[in-house]
Design brief:
single chain, 470 residues, alpha+beta, Uridine Diphospho-n-acetylenolpyruvylglucosamine Reductase, domain 2, Uridine Diphospho-n-acetylenolpyruvylglucosamine Reductase, domain 3, Alpha-Beta Plaits, 4 domains, five-stranded antiparallel sheet
């Protein structure tokens, strides 16, 4: 009876068409992006604006109904899908998809949480501005999800994570009040930083409904190079050289192992491999410059030339057109899809001090071979900011399910190694439900106590994305 009254109230608040209770209608919102977990929900509720979000949250408070906020549902840690109790609603923000304003002079864009990242990028580009947040899922992920997980992407080296790109937030609190914080200010020292509490909180403290993000003058030129190196240590030497010679023009610096590109070649044979022979590791570099092309081209050629002379890299390909640059980036962006086509794997999204990445890869590769002989490490990521996607695939000939059954053991080896080197077990994907218990091994009791205090203060009924993060 309680649920019937709640659903009727939701229908009155936002319209019957936007409260989905049929199993067929709900299905698309209940399974995670990797198709490994399906939860259950009382309903899928799709408000159209911030006022309707607030109305739904107030109803959830009245009826004590848990809320799972969801944007594009592209997350990898079960943060945006409900559990299997069927007691929660999924609050879809897809209808909050508007670009509210682009202020070219203030270099800001105000967007709603359900706006797809690519659409926000295009709105900035229409004003000759750059929204630098860029990741493989940008055609389907949403701004709210990017903020809720503090997404990283390929340009963090120069522009920072989503947190660094956000100036202000509009948030519906756990009580259904609206925090009006859409201020496009670089300086606002008027008390506690409420904005940063909600960024990276994965919807456990409140629901982000809109944001003011930084945008930048569009670069006059973007140049890309793919360099072949022997070891991750050589890749780090190349990074240091590029930073010294190129400064702020160095926008992206991605590491890919040879196995990564072997999988891409296997599953996407239409993508040409740029070198006549294979190498152990590859680095994808991008420079963006406000000056004309010859300036950036001179910088990039000088870095590659010096690296070749010093033996830091063995070969390199410099893109001479936009099409060639896109082709090089497509190799990088196809790794996850190629690994998915290859079969199930155990993913790790970790961060480390940049100076220890080579050591981490060498030590952890050896530990995994010792405990799980023949396993294949698909290692790639944002070397410039210390973020590795350190994925482990089954040995050839070993069944997927047999290998996945040992996921907890593999996670322990990897995560303990990360922790021993001062790293984090979640760089940009968040904790969700997948790493909620795992983090207890690595966060100090003081940190966990403070996080619980904040959660209790802001969401005393524990209705906001329960079972996630904490």
């Amino acid at each position: 009876m309680k649920n019937i009254g709640f659903l009727d109230a939701c229908r009155n608040a936002i319209g019957t068409a936007h409260v989905l209770t049929d199993d067929t209608d709900k299905a698309a919102y209940l399974t995670d992006q990797r198709q490994r977990y399906t939860g259950q929900a009382l309903a899928i509720v799709k408000p159209a604006d911030t006022a309707e979000v607030a109305a739904i949250v107030k109803l959830c408070n009245t009826f004590h109904i848990p809320i799972v906020p969801q944007g594009g549902n592209t997350g990898l840690v079960l943060g945006s899908v409900p559990d299997q109790s069927g007691q929660a609603i999924v609050l879809s923000l897809k209808r909050l998809n508007r670009i509210r304003a682009v202020d070219a002079l203030n270099h800001t864009i105000t967007v709603e949480a359900g706006c797809i990242l690519q659409h926000a990028q295009e709105a900035a580009a229409a004003e000759q501005r750059l929204l630098p947040l860029s990741l493989a899922a940008e055609g389907s992920c949403t701004i709210g999800g990017n903020l809720s997980t503090n997404a990283g992407g390929t340009a963090v080296l120069r522009y920072g994570n989503t947190r660094e790109l956000c100036l202000g937030l509009e948030v519906v609190t756990a009580q259904g009040d609206i925090l009006h914080g859409l201020r496009g200010l670089r300086k606002d020292n008027t008390g506690y930083d409420l904005r940063d509490l909600f960024i990276g909180a994965e919807g456990t403290l409140g629901i982000i409904t809109a944001a003011v993000l930084k945008i930048f003058p569009r670069p006059q030129v973007q140049l890309t190079a793919l360099a072949a190196v022997q070891t991750p240590a050589d890749a780090l030497r190349l990074l240091s050289l590029a930073q010294q010679r190129c400064g702020a023009t160095l926008t992206g610096f991605e590491l890919m192992s040879d196995l990564c590109l072997q999988l891409v070649a296997k599953h996407f044979p239409q993508l040409p491999f740029p070198f006549p022979e294979r190498h152990p590791q590859y680095v994808l570099m991008e420079l963006s410059d406000s000056e004309l092309a010859p300036h950036a081209s001179t910088l990039l050629e000088a870095v590659i030339g010096e690296a070749l002379e010093q033996g830091v890299c063995q070969d390199a390909v410099l893109a001479t057109s936009t099409a060639q640059s896109r082709a090089l980036w497509q190799l990088r962006e196809s790794i996850s899809s190629a690994q998915a086509k290859e079969g199930k794997n155990i993913k790790h999204d970790v961060s480390l001090p940049i100076s220890r990445i080579a050591e981490f890869i060498a030590v952890t590769d050896a530990l995994l071979q010792q405990h799980f002989p023949g396993c294949r490490n698909v290692t790639f990521g944002h070397l410039g900011d210390g973020n590795l996607h350190y994925n482990v695939s089954p040995p050839l000939g070993v069944g997927e399910e047999q290998f996945i059954a040992r996921q907890a053991e593999i996670n322990r080896v990897v995560h303990d190694s990360v922790d021993s080197m001062g790293g984090s077990i979640s760089a940009e994907h968040g904790l969700g439900a997948l790493k909620r218990e795992e983090i207890l091994r690595y966060k100090s009791p003081v940190e966990m106590a403070l996080m619980r205090t904040i959660k209790q203060a802001l969401d005393p009924l524990n209705l906001m994305n329960p079972g996630k993060v904490i």
